[in-house]
Amino acid sequence: NPVTNGSFEWSAPSNIALVKYWGKKANQIPANPSISFTLSNCKTITKLGFEKKESADGFSFDLLFEGQPKESFRPKIEKFFERVVAYLPFLKDYHFTIDTQNTFPHSSGIASSASGMAALAMNLMSVERLLNPQITDAYFYQKASFLARLGSGSACRSVKGSVVVWGSHAEIEGSSDLFGVPFTGQVHDIFKDYQDTILLVDKGEKQVSSTLGHDLMHNHPYAERRFAQAHDNLSALKAALVEGNLDAFIKITESEALTLHAMMMTSQPYFILMKPNTLEIINAIWKFRQETSVPVCFTLDAGANVHILYPENVSVKVLDFIKNELLGYCQNSQYICDKIGAGSELA
Ligand code: PMV
Q1: Is the complex ipTM more than 0.90?
Q2: CATH superfamily of domain region 191-339
Q3: Could you tell me if the CB of 113 is within 6 A of ligand 1?
Q4: Pfam families recorded for this chain (predicted)?
Q5: pTM tops 0.90
Q6: What is the atom index within ligand 1 of the atom nearest the CA of 19?
Q7: What are the residue ranges spanned by the domains of the chain?
């Protein structure tokens, strides 16, 4: 093979699920389908250098985070390489340098696994395309999402924008458990430039890793009902996105967030991942929405931070509300303004 060395650089954004993925089968197959908004500002930028080795024994790579060696990432990357080597046979032929940075502050409580694994998958696909120039764009992106899924499930929704479905669903054309696909329906204009302001309530280490969290859905008393509900909610959300039905959007999105946390509160062992200030914020949003009719709602990840979602045309009002009434509930008044985005990009 004539390719001896080179490098690529890709950025990939984070994403925020509206219908949540929580629970998985073997090989990172989701127990239920999920749908997310791809974000724009919160992203990982990864440069991948590669150099042909003398012999193809084992994996060989150096890891840098913000320019400094970062050995603590090694087990995760090693495990990822083991999972994907069957699909990327060149992995053992090269020495890699993986140089990564995030646009959001580390230990902000914002998970970088989705953006990080997606950025790495894009880079690896660029190497594959260099070795196999005949592969099509469709194959390139689909396989990138497939690989990202094997790194971190939700990462498969960070390859493309702006609304992505992962998991097989009867009413979503082309949907698959193996990779994320852009939502093919005509999304209503009200969701163009949809805003996500992330309030940093608790920046501490995650109490429950998502790996453990997904495992808690095995033998969970409400698992089957929950998986069925996710299908129903995805059907309803699909209609809301197309019709621009913000009332329905809000009801489904908030209920999904609370259900995710309810699953954790009712598993064995059980966890409460919200903090008192998470509840203060939720109550303040409900009060503000009732008093002003501004269509703002919240969603949550598997942690205490709150994502506030709203259409661009009410940004001024919502940002005023956030600054005046919610920042006191955030750690060091910290928040991040983000919005719906277009997916990964080659630098
Ligand atoms: O991709 P994972 O295994 O870190 O799981 C992410 C799960 C949630 O963020 C809680 C929900 C989701 O669909 O993104």
Answers
A1: yes
A2: GHMP kinase, C-terminal domain (3.30.70.890)
A3: yes
A4: MDD_C (PF18376), MVD-like_N (PF22700)
A5: yes
A6: 13
A7: 5-187, 191-339
